[in-house]
Amino acid sequence: MLWPRLARALLARPLTDPAPGAPGATVAALAERLATSARARLGRSLAIREVDSGSCNGCELEVNALQNVAYDLERFGLRFVASPRHADVLLVTGPACRNMREAMERALACTPEPRWVVAAGDCAVDGGVFKGSYAVEGGVGAVLPVDLLIPGCPPSPAQLLEGLLALLETEAQTENRAGRIAPAGP
Amino acid sequence: MTATALIRAGLPQGARPHERHLLTAEEWSRLPAALAAAPDLALLALWAEPGMVHAAFLDGAAVLLASAPAEGGRYAALSPARPGAIRFERMIRDLWGLGAEGAVDLRPWLDHGRWPMAGPLSANPLPTPGAEPPQPEFLPVEGEGVHQIPVGPIHAGVIEPGHFRFHVQGEVVVRLEARLGYTHKGTLSLMLGKSPRAAAAFPARLSGDSTVAHAWAFAAAAEAALGVEVPLRAVALRAAMAELERIHNHLNDWGFVCNDAAFAFPHARCGFLREGVLRACQAAFGHRLMMDRVLPGGVAPDIAPGGAEAILAALADVDTELPALVRIYESHASLQDRVVGTGFLDPAHAHAFAAGGYVGRGSGRGFDARIALGYAPYGLDPPLLALEQGGDVDARVRVRIAELRSSVALVRRLLATLPEGETLVPLPAAAGEGTALVEGFRGDCLAWLRLDGGGLIRGAFLRDPSWLHWPLLEAAVEGNIVADFPLINKSFNGSYSGVDL
Fold first, then answer.
1. Does the reported pTM lie above 0.90?
2. Is B205 in Cβ contact with A133 (below 8 Å)?
3. Pairing of β B52-59 and β B62-69
4. Do B57 and B92 touch, CB atoms closer than 8 A?
5. Is the CB of residue B333 less than 8 Å away from at least one CB of chain A?
6. ipTM value
7. Which residue of B has its CA nearest to A68?
8. How close is the nearest chain A Cα to the Cα of B248, in Å?
9. How high is the mean pLDDT in each 10-residue block of chain A (186 residues)?
10. What would the CATH number be for the domain defined by B3-127?
11. Among candidates B300, B301, B294, B292, which has minimal Cα distance to B436?
12. Ranges of each domain in chain B
């Protein structure tokens, strides 16, 4: 029976881990890149579109784990959306495969501004072990303007969460900064 | 002459433990007819080297390898006799530039026209500067009111990229065709010229969810090639890791199947139990997915102090909750209505494609490499064969539930009887050729490699079981409604990266 279990779950201690803090250095670095206009428009909430540009699926497993009850990503105002048209953040995993280049560019073009590109995983940072292959452009930065790098092979859910929280924190702290998102690569 | 006799008549090439026979091009050209007369000789894989084509068959409990020169860049296609050969032949054309004569399908597969050269693994790749990528061709469907739904390569969920082209009539799928290759990373080319140790990072990243299984298959192939015996402790640890990988993936996919049927509770619980298993793996092996732990020559690092206890505690949680979860899965009509009878895979198709894992075993094909080949340590203590005849989403889920139970029991036994001693031995730098078949959570993972006198890789192939599952997904979806596709797809859970290479 499901109902008694649900009732017990309501009365029991939550299974969710306590929230980690956002690393200060990352927040400071990100603050350089963000504008107050973004904060006004987005508040403390980010919609994330995950894009696999050629990963081995290891990063996807850990990104999916972010949504389990232990990490419960949505309590931070972070949620995954089904289309880049609904997204503030493109979370890109994997090396930039040549066969994915056009899809990556079109996903970015579909994402409304203000927007951020997060490259997650060692492959997304610089191509990882696939660097130099005829089939790979390099890291995600070879195709898209990257705002934040989260290394790891794959990055653990805790590492992913720290990176995403840094983005959220920075967005909340940034004040009196004009301009738009820097289109710089890594 | 039977197909087996035809292959065995070829010149032995000294491959271990499964011999490879070199046929002449003329002998190879007689293979398709011989294979048509021997439906039980399963084709496991087809791949190439510059100017040479290789095939792996399953002959009872042994792997049988056959090769032939591709004279003038041509070889006789096996696809008229083995439908599973179709995508391998398309891949061989794209990577090695060799053409299959008489092939069923000659369209490109991995090569989307976006690499700087054609035939990147051939002896002389042809540069293709500035060529416009061709539009993909899909098989046509005729009929009144038929329309197309293109999906991907970027999907709505957090999954790998691939394109699905649905031809639908009303709500019913008339034909599904997958177009993959988006995650092609040139993995095989990166392995060439490296030592097995240096190249082990690539099988570990062929498909992240099967990192242990592919790393084990690759390591076992390298050890066979070099005649290296692995310490008993490493063998037991490899099996423990492989079973933990099976447990975390089965939990994950079972939860996702329920979630795709809009039933969230098992998804939440399975996700939590899986998280417990992954954290125990982190504590025991220093990596949640146990990536880069299985190396040619053994396992490194050794299991951490307290690691076995962490694993046993996580498995106790799984074991305790499993019966209740199964009852909930079975007793909710809204869930059963979605999974029973949905995505039926005909046992004849599963047999023709030699489907492994829960896809084959859910449709009555009783093959499990752990049992059939009995490789160490499973030979002494084989798991029970999980077999279902239903062929639907439910049957594939039930195979996984049965395997969850047997894998939990296996890990407990392995950890209780863990031999003492070292876990890693050095590999000599010598020539050799080896093959291995290891049962991953999806099915049998095949690895083949050939080393030169300096101990460096001169030829390699890694075959994920999804090669034989993806075409069957297309068959299983036919006649179902579009809304059931995510459910059916998750019950197969094919690897994209694993087949995109």
1. yes
2. no
3. antiparallel
4. no
5. no
6. 0.94
7. B271
8. 11
9. 84 84 65 53 80 96 93 87 94 96 96 92 96 96 94 93 81 44 39
10. 3.30.460.80
11. B294
12. 3-127, 188-472
